[in-house]
């Protein structure tokens, strides 16, 4: 006898082959089989988490029972396909007449499809969400838990249901009554029978962590299950649903193998000494000597038995990256973590870390195949990433060892980047990843498939580097992320030079710390099971240095004069100013003073990518640890010189900035040990600070500093540093930062300065409160208060931040809700000669054609790379406002760059040659591209 559910379709070839279709039950069991096989490939710790979610003991029996219920619930994600709302969408459905005869009528009595416009169709996922709670409660589930379970599995299309959408799905004409309810009961019973589930557990709550684990696994299993080929399905197989489920498990294994989803195993099954792990970093005849901070980390993590947060506060050069990697190795072995993600502030820092992580995995992975992904919008153009790519999504065939995988060595071949994971919403599912913090933060924002991101980050080691580098808005999002990582059983490694006390306490409490004990700097703070331990570690004495601090007026004239004076003494003079405009003006002043071009290196962000990269390479080649140092050089730049670049200056001049940033800049002063004669006239490290004169507060408006930094932080820096003739690093680093962010004013300030500080503090407090409030409103709620039931939280009833999984990142712009800041746009300078446009003005390369702006041209990676290499990101208001009109006026409005992630928001900036200069006008703003100065305004 034919059961009702055998008549209902879930997947079909529709018009192509109308007889080729799959019943609802078959798809439900396909997806359940995929979830089952995924869980079998997970470490036992993951299955323990699911057992805990459902109130079962962390035993083999408890894990098995939890797996059965988890997979059964996941199977029911498409229960809503057994409804008029869904079944009517295929007018050629071959069983519709038979179904109508058996009472499966359409829309309150009609026996044919309603032919609704597609946009008016209520999604079957909403029907699942609306109908599943009643079935669950009827069979013994708690009412509140049932609603939350239905919410989790019903969200598999990317978003939790809005209350308004759910109300439509409650209508009888959409769900179907009578026989429709019977068929949904049949499907529920069939799934429960096949999965052999026991009586429902007696849990009374189903909070944020369990919700994300269920929702994430549901979507992933549905992606895999939906890839089962229709032509391989035979209706006769479904006569025995249990046997069908076993066949589906076999197919699930094949599909998972095709995307290289492997058994999650620890990199090391035995404890290892820090020195042994990183011996690959030194020549074979040398011994890797851990620094005191690294040795202390090994001791602090040796006995942890629960997911752990480790906060590392130490100066640059203490080996924090190795600490993060070693921490993962240890925590993975002890806690069963399923992978690692390292999150950094920018694409540039992410690219550098990607190479170091690749080396680490190749040397500690024991030859086991590992997948490593790079997560940011420009990854397609990163050589280290492209070298790991494996095409297509199948196992690489055995070839000659010298030719396999593009000739990479045996050690290199253990780490690859499989193609399936390169789609951004899937990338966090890879076992290992490096990228921007934005990609992780999207997990706590209401964007498409945010729960997939959180599930991917769950039960992992997650490293957040340079956590001091964010404003209040992004900083608060990071706190929310830490809360969710704690709820998902992940360990978190936070790294910073130092943090203000309030920020430190907030991060510790986000991970469930019951207190925030203090320890002297440098320090390690461990949170595990709510208990906190903070320890002081002796810094590497060989890196101690005493800086002499000398102030000067903030005027450009004074800065230029001091720079010339320092340059005359020889050696490397680093000059860091707070704006690109100021750097360009100073560069012109130095040229006017007769400084040879080859003795000045200008480095800032307002230059084409390739121009910026070539200068970065020159910085590292000449001023890096083993660089070929010139006798004299002025390294001049903006804040990019305080970020991540490993260079060594003999003397430094910096604009006044917040104290922590001044000290971060000073970290490049006498960074590496060198002979005194190499330092020329700068044997002792001296830090010159523009705007630091005791008799007057600097002009923050005229310099535009107040638009870059909060005036309060600048006033505090002036008040603290003006009476600081020497700074001992790292001994005084933490002390100065803590003083800088205390609200109490330093002693001995005049009434005028006190008044300015008070007004600036009010402004800062208002801005910080606004940033935190915006973050609170932007983020999903914290795991402990995550809403159950019908998703009534207004954040979910509003339009999502993004329906696009391919959002970008980078610290220079607000993206996908992860950052605040001025709006910006990527432009590609194009140089017009005659009727042709060139990426370079010499005209030697072939000009761009209309094909290069269309779909066909953008399929060529070399062209995409060439265009991206010539792009530059600008935030000037007139450019952001007028660049689209500029492109249209130059006949370039119909371009398809937006269809390529690396060029998603890029637009052309067409320049013409006038009086030997390349210029254009955008919205009334004169723009010039100068190959020495970069983009120049006015």
From TrEMBL:
Alphabetical list of PROSITE patterns matching this protein: HD_CAS3 (PS51643)
Keywords, comma-separated and alphabetical: Antiviral defense, ATP-binding, Endonuclease, Helicase, Hydrolase, Metal-binding, Nuclease, Nucleotide-binding
SUPFAM superfamilies on file: P-loop containing nucleoside triphosphate hydrolases (SSF52540)
GO biological process, one term: defense response to virus
Chain residue ranges for the region called Disordered: 392-411, 772-819
Coiled coil, from the record: none
Single Gene Ontology MF annotation: ATP binding
Keyword Hydrolase found: yes
Transmembrane residue ranges: none
InterPro entries: Cas3-like_dom (IPR054712), Cas3_C (IPR041372), CRISPR-assoc_Cas3_HD (IPR006483), CRISPR-assoc_Cas3_HD_sf (IPR038257), Helicase_Cas3_CRISPR-ass_core (IPR006474), P-loop_NTPase (IPR027417)
Residue stretches making up the HD Cas3-type domain: 17-224
Protein family per UniProt: In the N-terminal section; belongs to the CRISPR-associated nuclease Cas3-HD family. In the central section; belongs to the CRISPR-associated helicase Cas3 family.
Name of the protein described by the UniProt record: CRISPR-associated endonuclease/helicase Cas3
Organism: Deinococcus ruber
């Amino acid at each position: 006898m034919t059961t009702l559910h055998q008549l209902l379709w879930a997947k079909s070839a529709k018009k192509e082959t109308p007889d080729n279709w799959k019943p609802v039950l078959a798809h439900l069991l396909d997806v359940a089989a995929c979830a089952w096989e995924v869980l079998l490939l997970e470490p036992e710790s993951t299955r323990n988490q699911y057992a805990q979610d459902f109130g079962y003991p962390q035993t083999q029996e408890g894990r098995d029972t939890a797996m059965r219920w988890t997979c059964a619930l996941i199977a029911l994600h498409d229960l809503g396909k057994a409804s008029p709302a869904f079944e009517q969408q295929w007018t050629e459905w071959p069983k519709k007449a038979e179904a109508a005869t058996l009472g499966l009528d359409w829309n309150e009595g009609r026996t044919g499809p309603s032919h609704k416009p597609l946009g008016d169709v209520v999604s079957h996922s909403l029907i699942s969400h609306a109908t599943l709670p009643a079935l669950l409660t009827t069979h013994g589930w708690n009412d509140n838990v049932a609603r939350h379970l239905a919410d989790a599995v019903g969200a598999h299309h990317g978003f939790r249901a809005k209350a308004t959408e759910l109300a439509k799905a409650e209508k009888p004409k959409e769900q179907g009554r009578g026989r429709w309810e019977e068929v949904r009961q049949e499907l529920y019973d069939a799934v429960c029978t096949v999965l052999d589930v026991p009586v429902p557990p007696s849990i009374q709550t189903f909070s944020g962590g369990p919700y994300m684990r269920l929702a994430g696994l549901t979507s992933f299993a549905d992606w895999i299950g939906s890839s089962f080929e229709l032509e391989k399905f035979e209706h006769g197989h479904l006569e025995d649903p249990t046997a069908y489920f076993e066949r589906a498990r076999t197919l699930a294994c094949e599909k998972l193998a095709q995307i290289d989803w492997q058994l999650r195993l620890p990199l090391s099954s035995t404890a290892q000494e820090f020195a042994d792990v990183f011996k690959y970093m030194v020549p074979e005849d040398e011994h890797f000597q851990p620094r005191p901070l690294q040795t202390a980390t090994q001791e602090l993590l040796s006995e942890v038995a629960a997911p752990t947060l480790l906060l590392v506060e130490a100066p640059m050069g203490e080996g924090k990256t190795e600490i993060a990697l070693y921490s993962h190795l240890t925590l993975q072995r002890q806690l069963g973590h399923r992978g690692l993600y390292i999150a950094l502030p920018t694409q540039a820092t992410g690219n550098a870390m990607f190479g170091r992580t690749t080396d680490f995995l190749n040397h500690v992975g024991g030859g086991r195949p590992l997948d490593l992904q790079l997560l940011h919008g420009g990854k397609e153009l990163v050589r280290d990433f492209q070298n790991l790519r494996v095409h297509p999504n199948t196992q690489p065939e055995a070839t000659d060892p010298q030719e396999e995988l593009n000739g990479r060595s045996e050690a290199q071949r253990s780490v690859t980047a499989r193609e399936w994971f390169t789609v951004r919403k899937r990338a966090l599912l890879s076992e290992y990843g490096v990228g921007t913090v934005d990609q992780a933060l999207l997990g706590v924002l209401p964007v498409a498939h945010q729960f997939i991101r959180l599930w991917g980050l769950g039960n992992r080691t997650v490293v957040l580097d340079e956590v001091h580098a964010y404003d209040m808005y992004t900083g608060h999002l990071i706190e929310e992320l830490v809360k969710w990582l704690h709820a998902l059983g992940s360990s978190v490694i936070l790294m910073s030079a130092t943090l203000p006390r309030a920020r430190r306490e907030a991060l510790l409490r986000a991970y469930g710390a019951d207190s925030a004990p203090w320890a002297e700097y440098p320090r390690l703070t461990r949170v595990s099971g709510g208990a906190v331990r903070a320890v002081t570690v002796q810094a590497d004495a060989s890196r101690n240095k005493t800086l002499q601090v000398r102030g000067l007026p903030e005027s450009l004239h004074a800065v230029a004069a001091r720079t010339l004076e320092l340059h005359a003494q020889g050696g490397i003079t680093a000059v860091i100013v707070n704006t690109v405009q100021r750097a360009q003006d100073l560069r012109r002043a130095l040229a006017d003073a007769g400084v040879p071009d080859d003795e000045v290196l200008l480095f800032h962000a307002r230059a084409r990518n390739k121009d910026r990269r070539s200068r970065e390479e020159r910085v590292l080649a000449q001023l890096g640890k083993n660089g070929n140092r010139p006798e004299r050089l002025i390294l001049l730049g903006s804040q990019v010189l305080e970020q991540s670049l490993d260079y060594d200056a003999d003397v430094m001049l910096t604009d006044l900035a917040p104290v922590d940033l001044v000290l971060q800049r000073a970290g490049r002063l006498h960074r590496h040990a060198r002979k005194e004669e190499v330092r020329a006239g700068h044997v002792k490290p001296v830090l010159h600070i523009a705007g630091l004169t005791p008799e007057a507060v600097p002009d923050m408006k005229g310099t535009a500093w107040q638009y870059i930094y909060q005036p309060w932080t600048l006033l505090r820096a002036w008040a603290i540093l003006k009476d600081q003739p020497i700074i001992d690093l790292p001994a005084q680093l933490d002390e100065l930062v803590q003083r800088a962010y205390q609200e109490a004013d330093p002693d001995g300030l005049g009434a005028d300065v006190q008044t300015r500080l008070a007004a600036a503090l009010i402004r800062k407090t208002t801005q910080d409160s606004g940033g935190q409030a915006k973050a609170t409103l932007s983020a999903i709620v914290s795991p402990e208060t995550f809403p159950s039931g019908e998703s009534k939280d207004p954040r979910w009833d509003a339009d999502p931040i993004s329906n696009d999984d391919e959002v970008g990142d980078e610290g220079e712009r607000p993206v996908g809700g992860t950052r605040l800041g001025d709006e910006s746009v990527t432009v590609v300078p194009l140089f017009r000669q005659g009727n042709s446009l060139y990426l370079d003005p010499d005209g030697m390369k072939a000009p761009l054609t209309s094909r290069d702006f269309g779909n066909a041209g953008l399929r060529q990676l070399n062209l995409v790379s060439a265009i991206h290499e010539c792009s530059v990101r600008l935030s000037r208001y007139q450019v952001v406002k007028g660049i689209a009109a500029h492109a249209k006026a130059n006949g370039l409005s119909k371009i398809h760059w937006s269809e390529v992630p690396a060029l998603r928001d890029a637009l052309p900036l067409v320049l013409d040659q006038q009086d030997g200069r390349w210029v254009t006008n955008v919205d009334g703003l004169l723009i010039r591209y100068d190959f020495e100065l970069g983009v120049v305004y006015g």
